[in-house]
């Protein structure tokens, strides 16, 4: 797509009076911005004008395709005309005539000024130019507007980047408009009007593919183009475009470089229009440069396309203190980062293999620049050299370069943060063992990375994840599992086990934490009570209710509301129905467990009520799983994806505890209706187990088991059996109805 875009987006199409811009559609979607995995922040060069050209993989421009030049031109255009009209009209009035009034209303306003019959709208009358003096100012303004608005048909076209240009049949003849433009330009005596008409005529020639005439008009009127924030640079862009269409690429590229350098609003379009195609053209283009500065600009644009090392060398050869190489430097470093695809350090065994991908020419060049210390902004060169050498695993060289950067490390928050990030890369990349000494050595850098406030443009996220992942894996290597969990929550699937949770809680409670451990405790997204919550959940799922209750009650201000009544059950599960139903009692984890304990106690102390109470207990255990209405029971700060693996039949998918109590309830009652309910719920537990373990080659929707057979054999005379037939399609299919 970029190749097509470069061919089509020659320049921003914009008139001298009305604004229209090209908005290019990006191929990328979603939230991806093309900087993911990056740890090197281009903003450290402190050159906002080059921000669009910072590296991104998503689009050609760091801040997207949308061009703000239209708004800039519109604002400046209004100011220019207000000044021309002697500031006798309000901005609203000038904006109306420039951007809203139709050709019919413009003509009507001319008639009105000349005291001829007109057809002005109420709005046109409210912005009347009749009182404007001298009258020639008003009519000159309106004649130009009429001419310019008719030209919009040729100059402002909708561009469809997935197909052809809009082929709508025109109303006006471009050849007649050109003839009119020649006449208007010849008669123009005011410098301002002469500039506007020359620009309009140049554009008309361009869009009529009369490129020689477009160039001729520009050259003949070059001295007239003086509006620095508007017409001057747009006129030069059209001249450059005309040279390009003629295949005079050297001249075109040279002029586009002047636009790129001279006018920020057209930097993007000038960049996309710049095409160094052949070496001969490039050499000729360089030969057109009249100053060292112009050559620097040409090499900078060359480097934005490719061969950034050559471009940087040439720029600094021309001017050792030039800042034009800075943006190319950050692009070069970001491109090297992309070779790692965010995998730096995540697999220590691949570190050497990944380091071989780093551009050797870039490393050599950065080594030279760091050693000479001659650049305009030396700290960014020292930091870049150190970072790339660390990626290359040239640790000794990187250390020397980082030491050179240290003296500048406090010049700004951004530089400070980048310095400590790169220091971490160097230290962590070479670690093979997470010793107390290593932990202490990392502390200063870690505190900046994890605790200091940094500017929004800084890129710490990938670094933080990489550091955490690498350090946690080193801790696991030493079987320091609690430390690994503290460094990176969820690095291991260990904490679905009660004993492991107890160990983690004890680790949080220990008094003699190292400064390293204290730091990660402070920046962890979890707390001791995150694990206590999970411990209480695990105790409940293990039917250790007293232990669960103690755990939940030890949590300060613990709240966890269950949206549905956890002791309600239906033939067909309907979570939303239960959540919407009026509840006399609102349960949370604590009151839920208390009720389970209470009902189990009643079942033991009052055998006659055992069946009903065990049935309610079973309902509670069923509903607190994924299949029930109280899923919020296992909701906690700890993302369950870390600790419960569906393929390992995680506790929230396990109905075995519910099945145990349904069968116990059935054995403790002589009530056939209750027995039927218990048997059907046992069948649901049986089916859920099948669903979570369904063989990939199994063709059916369900598989009947022991309890469907028992229902059919023993409970066909119950009322509940009829409810089952009415509501359960699986059971109807089983019995052939």
Q: How would you characterize the overall build of this protein?
A:
By secondary structure, this protein is mainly alpha-helical. Among the domains are: 1-25 and 65-274, no CATH class; 575-735. Helix content is 59%, strand content 0%. It has helices at residues 2-8, 69-84, 91-100, 103-113, 122-126, 135-155, 174-187, 191-207, 211-220, 231-245, 249-262, 267-273, 279-288, 292-305, 308-318, 326-338, 351-355, 360-372, 378-391, 395-406, 413-429, 436-450, 461-477, 481-487, 498-509, 515-523, 528-541, 545-553, 575-580, 589-605, 610-623, 640-643, 656-667, 672-691, 706-714, 719-727, 729-735. The two termini are 59 Å apart. The relative contact order is 0.05.
What tags apply to this protein structure?
about 725 residues, mainly alpha, about 0% strand
Q: What does the secondary structure layout of this molecule look like, with pairings?
A:
Blueprint (H helix, E strand, L loop, with lengths): L1 H7 L60 H16 L6 H10 L2 H11 L8 H5 L8 H21 L18 H14 L3 H17 L3 H10 L10 H15 L3 H14 L4 H7 L5 H10 L3 H14 L2 H11 L7 H13 L12 H5 L4 H13 L5 H14 L3 H12 L6 H17 L6 H15 L10 H17 L3 H7 L10 H12 L5 H9 L4 H14 L3 H9 L21 H6 L8 H17 L4 H14 L16 H4 L12 H12 L4 H20 L14 H9 L4 H9 L1 H7 L2
